[in-house]
Amino acid sequence: MKNITIEICAGSLDDALLAEKAGAQRIELNSSLFLGGLTPSLGTLRLVKQKTKLKVLTMVRPRAAGFFYTEAEFETMKEDARIFIENGADGIVFGFLNADGTLDAARCEALCKIANSRETVFHRAIDVVPDPLKTLDALIELGITRVLTSGQEPTAPEGAELIAEMVRHARGKIEILPGGGITKKNASRLVQETGVSQIHFAALCSKPEPSVQHNPKIYYGGALYPNEDRFEIADLDEMRRIIEKVN
């Protein structure tokens, strides 16, 4: 099997350090992985660039729930993108859709201009558009570097057929990066079935948080009421196992 580029979805400096140790070449830097990945802090980006040799693609996503943003959110995203590029990000990750779910090319173009010569990634917003191949053509016209997709299914292995079709349709004009639900059990098969040259995944484990042990009934989040006595961090051993499977 050809050598596969490994991109890890990282939610912190700790995750980035572990991703590099596992053998990743690139990370997508986020906050709030539980929400699918939101804009990280500038401090996290700076430290990851200082302490690793990884290529760092920085998420620009101000909130969860869709990709049709208010003007204020759009202005915030442009400012975040500028700050990240100015502080060493190797590229930015974003997605803009209209209210009907079609591509908002104008806003994508605005982020591409801010990225200048750095990489641009259109993330899994493509998994909810009505016509993914037409959208792929539009992203090629915009000069987007790559698109992250699960093939319009809950996981990339389930969407392998469309991912393979996107690879053929792109004809090398845009990179296709499968992500979502990739594990050591399906990673190798996904690469073989789709013909991709890179994969994107997160491998997490739970770590105890001891400071709240005296009053575990207190919650700091919203309606989901997550456990406050533990948090998720990258799983070094699992990342290594997945990487070994595809390489």
Key words describing this protein structure:
247 residues; alpha/beta; TIM Barrel; eight-stranded parallel β-sheet; two-stranded antiparallel sheet; 10 strands; 36% helix; CutC-like_dom_sf; cytoplasm; CutC-like
Description:
- Keywords: Cytoplasm.
- It comes from Treponema phagedenis.
- Pfam families: CutC (PF03932).
- This protein is an alpha/beta fold and 247 residues long.
- The protein has a single domain, classed as Alpha-Beta Barrel (TIM Barrel).
- It contains eight helices and ten strands.
- The protein has an eight-stranded parallel β-sheet. Strands 9-10 form a two-stranded antiparallel ribbon.
The total strand number stands at 10
The global form is globular
Q: What structural class do the secondary elements suggest?
A: alpha/beta
**Percent of residues in helical segments?**
25-40%
Strand content: 15-25%
Spell out the CATH superfamily: Copper homeostasis (CutC) domain
GO molecular function: copper ion binding
Organism: Treponema phagedenis
Family: Belongs to the CutC family.
Protein name: PF03932 family protein CutC
Quick summary:
This protein is an alpha/beta fold and 247 residues long. The chain has one domain: TIM Barrel (Alpha-Beta Barrel).
List the helices and strands and how they pair.
Blueprint: E1 5-10, H1 13-22, E2 26-29, H2 42-51, E3 55-59, H3 71-86, E4 91-94, H4 105-115, E5 119-122, H5 132-142, E6 146-149, H6 160-170, E7 175-178, H7 187-194, E8 198-201, E9 204-208, E10 230-234, H8 236-246
Parallel strand pairs: 1-2, 1-8, 2-3, 3-4, 4-5, 5-6, 6-7
Antiparallel strand pairs: 9-10
Protein name: PF03932 family protein CutC
GO cellular component, one term: cytoplasm
Organism: Treponema phagedenis
